Each structure stands twice: as C-alpha cells, then as structure tokens.
Amino acid sequence: MAPGQLRVLYALDVARTQLYHFTATVIAGMGFFTDAYDFFAISLVTDLIGYKYYLYQAEVHIPRGVSAAISVIALCGAVPGQLVFGWLGDKMGRKRIYGVTLILMVVTSLASGLSFSKRVGKNVVAVLCFFRFWLGAGIGGDYPLSATIMSEYANKRRRGALIATVFAMQGFGNLAAGIVGMVVAAVFMKSDPSSHADFVWRIVLMFGAVPASLTYYWRMKMPETARYTVLVAKDAKKAASDMSSVLNVNIAPEDEAVNQLTRQGQYGLFSAEFLRRHGVHLLATSVCWLAVDITFYSLNLFMPYIFTRVGLLPTLKKGDNPFKLMIDIAKLHTTIAICGTLPGYFATVALVDRIGRLRIQILGFTMMSVFIICLAAPYDQHWTKPKNKYGFAVMYGMTIFFANFGPNTTTLIIPAEIFPARLRSTCHGIAGAFGKIGAIVGVFAFRYTEDNVPRTLFGLVGCNIVGILFTLLLPETKGKSLEEIAGEIEEQQPQQHADAAASAEHVQVVPV
Questions:
Q1: Which helix (H) or strand (E) holds 232?
Q2: SS3 for 260-287, per residue?
Q3: How far apart are CA 244 and CA 412, in angstroms?
Q4: Which among 177-181, 265-269, 377-381 has the top mean pLDDT?
C-alpha cells in the first residue's frame, strides 16, 4: 500500500479481476457501442437520403454543404456535450450524469428517424440535423463518463486493458452498423426505392436507440465510483460500504483520513497549481486526440466516397437500385470492421498493460503515417488494375488497424488516468472535445478537397507527426495507482503516510 493511500482505494487497486469488472466493462462499453453505431451509421445512409431528396436528372447530387452537415452535425454536438457533461460528472457525480446522457441518446436516436416536415427535402434534412446535434451531445457526454467510471473501478494492474475493452465496444458498434444496414436494405431490396428509401434510412438510424435503452437499468444499478465518493463527495462511510459490497471484503471507513486529505490544497482547473502540475498534460492529451480524430473520422465517414473514387464502389445514378449500393457499402464497412477495426482494439487490450500506453500511441501514429503515404503517393494508379484496387483496400484496412492499435484507443485511456479525481471527468471532456473539433476539421477538409484526395491524405500524415511530438510530453501510467499518477498521494502529510500504512492490514484483498 502506497504511503498516504486510503484503504478503500488500495483495495480497488489490488483487487483481482472479477465479475464486477466485467459487468462494469459491459455496461460502460454499451455506451461506446451506441456511440460508434450512431456516428458511423450515417455514412451508410447518406446516399439513400440523397437519392430521396437530391436526385437531379441522371444522378444523385447532394450539395457539398448538405453532405458535410449530415456527416458532421453529430460531431458538432459532441463538443459541448463532452465539455458540459464532463464538468457535471465532477460536480454532480459520474453515475447521475451517466443516466442523463443515456436518456438523451435514446430519445434523439428515435427522433432522428422520425425527422419529418410538411415540406420534404431540405426541411427534412434540417430536422434530421437538429436531432443529430443533440444526439452528438449525448454521445459526447458518454465519452468522459464511461472512461472515468471504468478507470476508477479498475485495478491498477489491468486498468489499461479494462478501459481499452470498454472502448473496443466501439468496434462492435461499427460492425453492428454495417450488419443492420445490410439487413434492412436487403429486406426492402425488391420494393420501390422512391417509395421506401425513407423507411430504410430511418430504421437504420432509429436502431441506435436499442442498445442504449437496454443498458439504462444496469447503469442506474451501478454504485457511484469510490474515488468520486471519497475524494470528491468526501463520504468515507458510503465509499467503504459500496466497495465492501462490490469486492466482498470488509473495508473500514476512514473519516479522519478523508477529512485531512480534503483539507489539503484543492487547486482548481484554472489555478496556477493546476497549470504547474497538469497544464502540459492537458495540452498534450488534447492535441494528440485532435490529431488522431482528424485522420480517423475523415477515413471512416468518407470511406464510401474514397472507395468509389478507386473503383471498388459504383456511383449511384438514376435507375440504379440504391438499396443494392447501400448493401455494397455496408459489406465494405463490415469487412473493414472485422479485418481492421476489431483486431486493432483486441491488440490494444492484450498489450496496453505490457508495453505501455505511450509506446502503443507512438507506434500507431507512425504506422498510420506509413500506410497513408502508401495510399497517397501512387493514388492515381490504384484503379488502373483490379489488383491495385484491392491493394488499396488492404492498406486502408491496415491504417484503421493501427489507428485502433494506437492513438484512437490510447487517447481515451490516458486522460482517464493522469488527472486528479475532482477534475478527471472535466479534463477528459476537454481533451475529447478537442478530438471532436479535429474530427469536424477533418470532415470539412475532406469534403472541400475531395477533388484532390492525395493532398488531403498527405495532410493527415502531418497530423500524425504532430501527434507523435505531443505524445512525448506525456507520462507513462501503466501499473500505477491513479492517486500516484495524479499526485494526490503527495498532498498528504507525513503522519497520514504512517497511519495509512499501519491500517493497510485491515483490508483483506487478493491481488491479481
């Protein structure tokens, strides 16, 4: 037991990996499942929306501004969602705000599919964008809360793997979007597209409410994290009671130790002390997340367009069956999820607590750059021969693999570990908001430079290099207590160190 560490937090750190860890992982992970489904399902139905409302003469032509708005509006909502709900998670508790974000996601997912207007076309798209903005706000709020809850529940030996497992549910959400898209389009394949296109895209978007609604009860059954209860709410008895029940051990409350701890200098987010201790950390986590999301969301949301340009997907024209094209897009989406996205997440889960967060993040940024250069340099030659097209697809899949076995996962893990408990959710929300700003920049940059894809891809390489440089400013966190990483233990007095060490024998826990 580290000097100055409370018994209840020590018990969490050394607890063996057990059922409650897996339960918390599934409950928190379903939020990311829903997030990924809602973010990426829109790329499957954008052409269908264009077929319904923007069919001009011989082909579908969605104005660039409209297409960008449909793709990016949920990301715009995620920025204030991460900032506001992240802050509320520190002020009102992770559990309470967790339920609010889930309800918001369920309601707005359903409302997105029910986006009607007396005047079809532009008005329907405007209503859709309104509800997807608020859907993005709920998704954005889920990021800091899910990551913070899992980091505060986890033991220190497997904390990185547990947070990575939660985030890996995003890969399954991505996969589910492809499968649902294929199934719904197949059901309507033989129907009249002009009459039933509306049903297909609405059903696909509304399905996002299902996984979120199924987990609401279990989210509300989870106790508040002990770290919030004892370090922020200052309720030692409740923290000891909750964790005694969860861990099945007897943990005595430490009222005096908690009172002494909370009387120490509790610096705020905008204080000079925070700037000295964690200013560089907040800057580095924010810039790294911004850099990776520019690349990750650009490649994912514009995957159908990229593969259309290299000849692996056809262009939708008048007389074509839009449901068949949607199935083709969903197949490609699903294949990349199975071959690139999920293996990347699994590799991180397996190795993050062995080789460390920073090595994985640097490796990911580096390999993404290598494969993007391989996509961009011979870009004009990729559609000249069939084998070139499939080589392009393989390199694209490897880019996605190293995004997930790399910064797309580690940028979520690190902010959940390096900040103090009273500011953890807020700082995670700030870093995540920068990530979504990066995603917005990437989407608009790609949309308005789509006539010169190689130049855009080389721009993504530059983003990766920036990510590598700022990763070097971060500390390695594997195998350490959250209080040790954030410097909270250092705030205690020498007498508390001795008292805490002497009392450690009262905690009966089994290390991993």
A1: none
A2: HHHCCCCCCCCCHHHHHHHHHHHHHHHH
A3: 29
A4: 177-181
- Residue spans of alpha helices (H) in 207-302: 209-214, 216-221, 226-231, 236-247, 255-262, 272-301
Confidence of residue 213 (pLDDT cuts 50, 70, 90): confident
pLDDT score at 510: 40
- Name the residue type at position 208: G
Q: What is the DSSP string of 163-202?
A: HHHHHHHHHHHHHHHHHHHHHHHHHTTTS-HHHHHHHHHH
Average pLDDT over the chain, rounded to an integer: 84
Q: Which of 45-59, 174-188, 282-296 has the lowest mean pLDDT?
A: 45-59
Residue 375 DSSP SS3? helix
User: Which residue from 404, 402, 366, 429 is spatially nearest to 91, judged by alpha carbons?
Assistant: 429
Residue 491: its pLDDT value, please? 44
Q: Are the C-beta atoms of residues 344 and 353 closer than 8 Å to each other?
A: no
Q: Are 349 and 161 in contact (CB under 8 A)?
A: yes
C-beta of residue 410 within 8 angstroms of C-beta of residue 35: no
Rounded Cα–Cα distance for residues 129 and 155 (Å): 41
Q: Region 42-53: what's the mean pLDDT?
A: 81
- Residue-wise over 46-63: b if at least 16 C-beta within 10 A, else e? bbbbbbbbbbeeeebebe
List residues bridging with 56 in a β-sheet: 59
Q: Say whether 425 sits in a helix, a strand or coil.
A: helix
Beta partners for 59?
A: 56, 317
**Angle, to 10 degrees, between the axis of helix 122-153 and the axis of helix 424-448?**
140
Q: Which run of H or E residues covers position 60?
A: strand 59-60
Q: Given CA atoms 503, 505, 509, 512 in this order, what sign does their dihedral have? A: positive
pTM recorded for the entire structure: 0.87
Neighbours of 479 (CB within 10 A): 14
